[in-house]
Amino acid sequence: MRILGIDPGFERLGIAVLDPALRKERGEKDHCVVFSECFKTSSKLGFSERLNLIGKEVHKIIKEYKPEILAIETLFLNTNQKTVMRVAEARGVVIYEASSAGLKVFEASPPQIKIATTGYGRANKEQIMKMVKILAEMDTSKTSDDELDAIAIALTAFAHLKVLKK
Amino acid sequence: MRILGIDPGFERLGIAVLDPALRKERGEKDHCVVFSECFKTSSKLGFSERLNLIGKEVHKIIKEYKPEILAIETLFLNTNQKTVMRVAEARGVVIYEASSAGLKVFEASPPQIKIATTGYGRANKEQIMKMVKILAEMDTSKTSDDELDAIAIALTAFAHLKVLKK
């Protein structure tokens, strides 16, 4: 059950593909990060062009890694209204590309992500990042926060689906 | 210069295609509504499926009517946060489909729409609708508000582009 985790953003989009089975084959732990990146769009480009690049990148990654599930963070309104609207539009494009490719969509709220990664619904950013690094067992020295967020979201989907299967 | 006007929505999407040239050929006035509809998605469907239907519908209409410009209303936050986020996601999908098909995107703010249709930036809904019916010169008895909104948005883009050309 391969999962595409996305930390939705307009300027920076965290993307990660996790495959639990792959690591099990190797006799290791549950989660394997097959791919991760922080996809950036330049502020010099027009808005519609940036949306286009985001959709095309997600399309490309789905085609290449063939995940079955999209795990994506739910959005909440913060102080910057304009930013959150742009992020929502990018989020719509990501879900659209995933849905067009037949992926199931799992929406993870921030408290769900906190509980799934740290066991504590009010964990702070540092605590989440620390646990993600342990859970994903990867060399995270070169991994951006956006990628780690995307991995955390994919781990959350994995935890929920595992519970559902039991 | 064929314009696709979209009144962004998640449950109801107003869509209109206007072609100024077409009517000029007939020796009539400026604007001709080639197509209009209110595209609805059922609340019984899942969120990602509804986004998918919206994108596919816009894709189909672009392919059939070949507009060169997408005119779409800008969004502002209202009281219902959840609704506005879903509408923003749908809006992202519409812009993505248009941008992928090579259309230029024109974003029209509510005051721009009011000025372009009525000449008055604080016009109310009824005043806009009345003017749209006159400007579009169509049989509007069967036309929904969402379609009229989409026509108003397309008319706004047309007014702006006409000014730019002068």
Structure overview:
Chain A has a single domain (3-165), classed as Nucleotidyltransferase, domain 5. In chain A, β1 (3-7) and β2 form a beta hairpin. Chain A has a five-stranded mixed β-sheet with strand order 3-2-1-4-5, sandwiched between helices. The first copy, chain A, is 52% helix and 18% strand. The first copy, chain A, has helices spanning 20-25, 47-65, 81-100, 110-118, 125-136, 145-165; strands at residues 3-7, 12-18, 33-40, 69-73, 104-108. Chain A has six helices and five strands. The first copy, chain A, is of the alpha/beta class and 166 residues long. The interface between A and B is medium-sized, with 26 and 25 residues.
Task: Itemize the secondary structure elements and their pairings.
2 copies of one chain form a homodimer.
Chain A lengths: L2 E5 L4 E7 L1 H6 L7 E8 L6 H19 L3 E5 L7 H20 L3 E5 L1 H9 L6 H12 L8 H21 L1
Parallel strand pairs in A: 1-4, 4-5
Antiparallel strand pairs in A: 1-2, 2-3
What is the N-to-C succession of helices and strands of chain A? EEHEHEHEHHH
Gap between N and C termini of chain A: 15 Å
- How many E strands of chain A? 5
- In terms of quaternary structure, the protein is homodimer
Please mark out the parts of chain A with pLDDT under 50 across 5 or more consecutive residues, or reply none.
none
Shape of chain A: globular
